[in-house]
Write a structure and sequence with these properties.
By secondary structure, chain A is mainly α. Chain A is built from 27 helices and two strands. Chain C contains seven helices and no strands. The chains are: A mainly alpha, B mainly alpha, C mainly alpha.
């Protein structure tokens, strides 16, 4: 195995993948006059180039035939040295990285194409594309990184771009609040992440994950298991736990999930790219990358913790999604729920299942978000589903693609989501039956709320021209009362082409599931007991969810925008609780925020009274001393003395001036008198 | 009696004093200049007297006396030109009136 | 020769006293000329004949005439006799001069002090200083002071002309 492999050569060119978008972002940021065509061309072109390189790397890792060991190529280099230690960074090319890079660049490319249509009327077009490029560079840098420090830097950069893009319309107060919330919440998770990094460096002495001489941090996982950590865990599991806290923040797991729904304030392409396909997946990816640490100690509670967090998030978010009215909010909670699925799979011990679900989810969630973007543009910036309806007549292409995405998400075979979700459920089933039961319930809810959304948005009557209060009249199509809504229309080609391409993948990607495990080099290949039960039950709950959705929402669609939700009628108070997101935000407000505000108030008072008080006392003393010096020393002695001496000089001058009479003869007289005196002195001595 | 050096010295001293007295007390500028001339002559006579009684062979004193006379002449010329210029301004040669440099 | 000395001394002293005490400036001038003659006589008496001639030429021939011209140029239109004031009021001028006289006379009386400064033997007065010798001395030993003197005289000449000339130009 010592011959130079093709991927060893390729890994040295890995840096090109994030390089192109980075250059595009840099050029755009330095332009003096913003140019829409140039921005869009640069961003999409750079992403296309990255896609080509990523796909080349991906195909190289596919290799051929049977590999007993994982194809992995590493390139570590020194960033800078200080003293004897040096700080290294590294790039890696292995199946996990290649798959992620290919997915990010490919999906990102089509999202960018869609964004040219979505942001067409916005005046900050060029700023948007610059930020998008920067994000793409950071995300791609994150996935190719072999070094925890580089990964963390890209992690933070991705968070920054998310902040900038969520608050793209910063002049809206809700957007400004959302951008801060996102950044701060993920920051809380990053505290754990950083602690994990520090501990790893402390215990292993390196931040490189893999190294050619076997000293990589992950390669030392075996020895880390024998070192003691905290809370009754080994060092490896402690580090894994701390790193998972970071993943919880980034991937919006309970209780750090609160930022993801609010992040929908950003433009829809941002939601599609960052908060569905890529950035939120970074947490899951990071856990996958550090997986050797997680599975090093089989009996530790970390894996169970991960699984239960994922399971709870999945169910929790799915219940909330049922009662939302904003088209993007439904999808946001759906993302949260699906991330829970991925995390649960990782916690159950199956990296391949979780990672595969990540990839398929990226495709169909991006598809759904872009589709919702098309709907929003097509209905002239309407986002409330109650004001939509019947759109399948007006936007057929969007409708078809959206349905494909929904079916994929609901887990209906033969769409991609069925295969990946099935793998996840199987892994959970083998681990813990209760968790599997809850996950199946979440899958049912997923199918239900997506069907609800389909019927509310695309079927029935177009409710967009309705007035606010129920009247019963049919609104005119082109002269709506008060709102002036005219008919929805299909979107331009640069908006529906991406979703068409993505829907192809949503259909066909699932067939790679059985190859994916081998591709990743996963160990498990034993016969899976219970596979028929799981598969059968997951299909059943999916169809049940769709049926119930049709029953409640499809048989009798909403007539007017102001009609109550049929579910609300039946569930009453529970519906309100779900709609208000189980009042989590209010709970945080009452506890965490109040406490922080109280601390801030305390410190402010302390500063004002104590610190400023001391300052005032010192100033007062200084003033008193200075007054004393001024009065006694300066006025009396210095000024007075000076004045007196000046006065005496003046008087002396006045006296002496009398000698200058201006009369020459007088001068002569004085001269001769002086000479006489001198002579007398000379002759008398 | 023999005229000795002392006689000449007394003479020149007396003449010098007279000249000085005149220069100090007259208010006419021209008479002041005359007094100065008298002082000059007394001094030069002193030199020549010493030369006669002590240094007879060396001619240094005579040469010096010639120079001194020339200088005195030049000085009186310039002084009188000044007096004329001042007269044009003040319309008098009264030294008591010229006190504009009083300070 | 003592008689000559005393007569000449009398002329000199009288001339000087009158020069400073007469009221009329012209009278003062004439007594000044008398004084110059007396000095010239003393030079002749002291065997400095050339010097005596020079004295007459320059002092009487040039300086006195100059003083006369200046007096004539600066006369008041309305008579020239001011109030009589011989040493009047300026009592300390007289005192000063008295002090000087006293001091100098004292030095003379104490001739030991003076005698220490001078060569002890009397001079040989058989040698007569000829004009040629003086001329040779001027040009050979004292040529630098001679030239300096020439420059000085030129400067004085130009300076005097400039000082006295200004008004004329300004009047035009």
């Amino acid at each position: 195995m010592s011959e130079a492999r093709y991927i060893d050569e390729l890994v040295r060119q890995q840096w090109l993948i994030p390089f192109f978008p980075l250059v595009a972002a840099a050029i755009q940021s330095l332009l003096k006059r913003p140019s829409r065509k140039l921005s869009a061309t640069l961003t999409i072109g750079a992403m296309g180039l990255s896609c080509i390189f990523a796909l080349r790397a991906f195909f190289a890792t596919l290799g051929g035939g049977e590999h007993t060991e994982v194809q992995r190529a590493i390139w570590n280099f020194t960033w800078f040295k200080f003293g004897n230690t040096s700080l290294d960074l590294g790039l890696i090319l292995d199946p996990l990285t290649a798959g992620m890079a290919a997915m990010v660049s490919f999906v990102g490319f089509w999202i960018f194409v869609n964004a040219t249509g979505y942001m067409d009327e916005d005046e900050n077009f060029t700023r948007f594309f610059c930020f998008l490029s920067l994000f793409a560079a950071s995300m791609l840098g994150l996935v190719i990184s072999n070094n925890l420090l580089l990964l963390f830097m890209c992690w933070e950069l991705v968070g920054l771009c998310s902040y900038l893009l969520i608050g793209f319309w910063y002049f809206k107060p809700s957007a400004a609040a959302a951008m801060k919330k996102a950044f701060i919440t993920t920051r809380i998770g990053d505290v754990g992440f950083f602690l994990g990094i520090l501990m790893l460096y402390w215990k292993t002495g390196t931040l490189n994950l893999y190294a050619t001489d076997g000293t990589g941090a992950l390669q030392q996982a075996g020895s880390l298991v024998h070192l003691a950590g905290w809370w009754g865990l080994s060092a490896a599991s402690t580090i894994a736990f701390l790193l998972f806290i970071g993943a919880m923040g980034k991937s919006a797991q309970f209780p750090l999930h609160v930022w993801l729904p609010d992040a929908m304030e950003g433009p829809t392409p941002v939601s599609a790219l960052i908060h569905a396909a890529t950035m939120v997946a970074a947490g899951v990816f990071m856990v996958g990358r550090m997986y050797p640490l997680f599975i090093a100690e089989p009996g530790a509670w970390v894996m169970d913790f991960v699984m239960w967090i994922g399971c709870f998030t999945a169910v929790f978010s799915a219940t909330i999604a049922v009662a939302q009215f904003d088209i993007k909010r439904v999808l946001a909670y759906s993302t949260c729920s699906q991330l829970g699925f991925m995390v649960m799979a990782l916690g159950a011990g199956n990296l391949a299942a979780g990672q595969f679900h990540l990839l398929t989810h990226a495709f169909f969630k991006a598809l759904l978000f872009l589709g919702s973007g098309c709907v929003i543009i097509g209905t002239h910036h309407e986002q409330d589903m109650r004001k939509m309806g019947g759109l399948r007549k007006y936007m057929p292409i969007t409708f078809v693609c959206y349905v494909i995405g929904t079916l994929a998400l609901a887990g209906v075979p033969p769409f991609a989501g069925f295969f990946s979700k099935d793998e996840v459920l199987l892994a959970t089933f083998q681990r813990n039956r209760l968790a599997w039961g809850l996950a199946t319930f979440a899958a049912f809810l997923t199918a239900f709320y997506m069907t609800r959304q389909i019927f509310m948005v695309f079927f029935g009557r177009w409710r967009g021209g309705d007035k606010e209060h129920a009247h019963g009249h049919e609104a005119h199509e082109d002269h709506g009362h008060g709102h002036g809504h005219h008919e929805p229309h299909e979107v331009s080609w640069n908006m529906w082409l991406p979703i068409a391409v993505l829907s192809l993948f949503a259909i066909g990607f699932g067939f790679f599931s059985h190859k994916f495990g081998n591709y990743l080099g996963a160990q498990e290949g034993e016969a899976v007991a219970g596979k028929p039960i799981v598969m059968g039950l997951s299909i059943a709950v999916g169809l049940l969810g769709i049926f119930l959705g049709w029953l409640v929402y499809g048989r009798k669609t909403m007539e007017h925008a102001s009609d109550p939700d049929p579910l609300a009628v039946n569930l009453g108070g529970l519906f309100t609780v779900l709609n208000r997101k189980w009042y989590i935000d209010e709970f945080y407000e009452a506890t965490v925020f109040r406490f922080t505000a109280a601390c801030a108030m305390f410190f402010r008072l302390f500063d004002k009274l104590v610190v400023d008080g001391i300052l005032h006392v010192i100033v007062f003393l200084a003033l008193v001393i200075s007054q004393i010096f001024r009065g006694v020393g300066d006025e009396f002695f210095i000024n007075g003395g000076f004045d007196a001496s000046c006065e005496s000089v003046r008087l002396g001058g006045k006296v002496l001036a009398k000698l200058q009479s201006g009369r020459v003869q007088n001068y002569f007289r004085v001269l001769s008198l002086g000479a006489a005196i001198l002579l007398l002195i000379y002759f008398f001595t | 009696m023999n005229v000795s050096l002392e006689h000449y010295l007394m003479l020149t001293a007396f003449v010098f004093a007279i000249g000085l007295c005149g220069a100090l007390s007259r208010k006419n500028a021209i008479i002041v200049l005359m007094g100065i001339e008298i002082m000059f002559n007394a001094g030069i006579l002193n030199f020549v007297a010493f030369w006669h009684y002590k240094y007879f062979v060396s001619l240094t004193a005579q040469v010096f006396a010639i120079f001194a006379i020339s200088i005195a002449a030049a000085e009186s010329a310039v002084g009188l030109a000044l007096v004329i210029a001042v007269y044009r301004h003040y319309r008098s040669v009264d030294l008591d009136e010229m006190r504009s440099l009083k300070g | 020769m003592e008689i000559a000395f005393w007569i000449l001394s009398a002329i000199t002293v009288m001339g000087a006293i009158m020069a400073i005490s007469l009221r009329n400036v012209m009278h003062c001038l004439l007594s000044l000329i008398l004084f110059f003659f007396g000095i010239a006589g003393h030079y002749f008496l002291l065997h400095a004949e050339f010097l005596g001639a020079v004295q007459i030429l320059i002092y009487i021939g040039a300086v006195a005439v100059l003083i006369a011209l200046a007096t004539m140029l600066t006369r008041h239109i309305t008579g020239e006799e001011g109030p009589r004031e011989v040493l009047g009021g300026k009592w300390w001028a007289g005192m000063g001069t008295a002090a000087i006289i006293a001091g100098l006379l004292w030095a003379i009386i104490r001739k030991d002090a003076l005698a220490r400064l001078l060569p002890t033997e009397a001079a040989n007065i058989s040698y007569t200083a000829l004009v040629g010798d003086i001329g040779r001395a001027l040009v050979a030993d004292w040529v630098v002071p001679l030239e300096a003197m020439a420059v000085l005289l030129t400067a004085a000449l130009i300076g005097a002309v400039v000082i006295a000339l200004e008004e004329v130009i300004r009047k035009r």
